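FORM 12-B: Structure-to-Sequence Request
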């Protein structure tokens, strides 16, 4: 009798367990992982390997945005229900390590290199106790998508190299630029000097600043590091070596003196689209959007793509990544692409600087109107009509 009662009790719990599975995306709400804890992967990005999606992001503590743990990793088959894989890259307890506990480690992104069969992680790094003065990128590698990742190095970008658009005439102009002559900022003269390369020249020897960032792998397998540089005034797009671990030295500038950060990029029908934000600290602002026929430009700015409540504030969030779902994405049971399934997902963070671990996530499908991306707010939406779980 006791065994029968135990079996009945177990059966009664099964429907309740099934109800805990997430079936829709609801931006701005608590998003529990498989342990019931809110997903802690902020400023993150997603990589698909095999039939599994891996979400990497900053582990935030309750009271500080400094890195006390490192980069966390979650895995999912359906992008809805996530398994906590633990810490992918741990900060170090070694004094003066570049990634010493208490450093600033932001916006980690991971891409897989089919030549080396390694998983390559890049992130924005600020050295412990030095504020945001280091302005470096960091690189780590692993043999498995979930890690553990081994930290390789950090540095500034493209030291001793001019951007590709700086031809002979630009180099003549840049020789005349000197910070001492432009002490008053935000004047027309100062903005013109920034556009012409004031900070590029200043940082030429030590390397260009590298802060908010993302990675992008193009159709031909070439990879690019896209980051905010020049005191967050100009975006840089830098080509990576074939092993995805270094810059080749070839890079371009996007929207000089435009004050953009938080880049997120995708390509649709041969056109590159990039969504960014302005620079207002933890406070949200209006999203910006750019397009180009080539990764090397020219880049053209377009109006804010967001539509709906708080569209002028990017729905209260800040861009971090755009996930491209392959045209061949199939539902598990039907073997067909769901008609409701978007091809691109806009990902953003709703920051909570007073309680960083409580930061929330915005995931919204990207549609197109008149050939341009549009992001409409939805309280709740379905990703796939059929779901599988890890």
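FORM 12-B RESPONSE
SEQUENCE OUT:
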């Amino acid at each position: 009798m006791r065994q029968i009662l135990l079996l009945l009790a177990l059966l009664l719990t099964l429907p309740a367990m099934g109800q805990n599975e997430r079936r829709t995306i609801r931006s701005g709400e608590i998003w529990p992982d498989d342990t019931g804890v809110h997903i802690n992967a902020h400023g993150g990005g997603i990589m698909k390997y095999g039939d599994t999606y891996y979400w990497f992001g900053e582990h935030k503590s309750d009271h500080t945005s400094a890195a006390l743990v490192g980069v966390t990793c979650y895995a999912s088959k359906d992008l809805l229900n996530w398994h906590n894989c633990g810490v992918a890259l741990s900060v170090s307890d070694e004094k003066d390590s570049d990634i010493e506990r208490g450093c600033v480690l932001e916006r980690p992104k991971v891409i897989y290199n089919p030549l080396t069969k390694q998983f390559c992680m890049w992130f924005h790094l600020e050295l412990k106790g030095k504020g945001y003065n280091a302005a470096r990128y960091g690189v780590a590698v692993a043999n498995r998508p979930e890690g553990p990742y081994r930290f390789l190095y950090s540095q500034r970008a493209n030291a001793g190299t001019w951007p590709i658009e700086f031809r002979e005439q630009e180099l003549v102009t840049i020789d005349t630029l000197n910070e001492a002559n432009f002490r008053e900022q935000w004047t027309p003269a100062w903005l013109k000097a920034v556009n012409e390369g004031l900070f590029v020249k200043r940082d030429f020897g030590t390397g260009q600043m590298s802060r908010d960032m993302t990675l992008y792998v193009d159709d031909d397998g070439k990879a690019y590091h896209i980051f905010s540089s020049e005191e967050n005034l100009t975006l840089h797009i830098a080509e990576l070596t074939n092993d995805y671990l270094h810059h080749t030295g070839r890079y371009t500038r996007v929207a000089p003196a435009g004050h953009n950060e938080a880049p997120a990029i995708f390509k649709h029908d041969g056109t590159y689209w990039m969504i960014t934000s302005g620079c207002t600290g933890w406070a949200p602002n209006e999203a910006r959007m750019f397009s180009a026929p080539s990764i090397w430009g020219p880049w053209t700015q377009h109006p804010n793509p967001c539509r709906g409540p708080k569209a002028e504030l990017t729905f209260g969030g800040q861009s971090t990544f755009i996930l491209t779902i392959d045209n061949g994405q199939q539902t598990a049971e039907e073997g067909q692409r769901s008609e409701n399934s978007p091809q691109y997902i806009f990902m953003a963070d709703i920051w909570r600087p007073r309680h960083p671990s409580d930061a929330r996530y915005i995931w919204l499908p990207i549609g197109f109107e008149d050939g341009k991306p549009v992001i409409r707010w939805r309280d709740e939406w379905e990703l796939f009509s059929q779901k599988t779980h890890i």
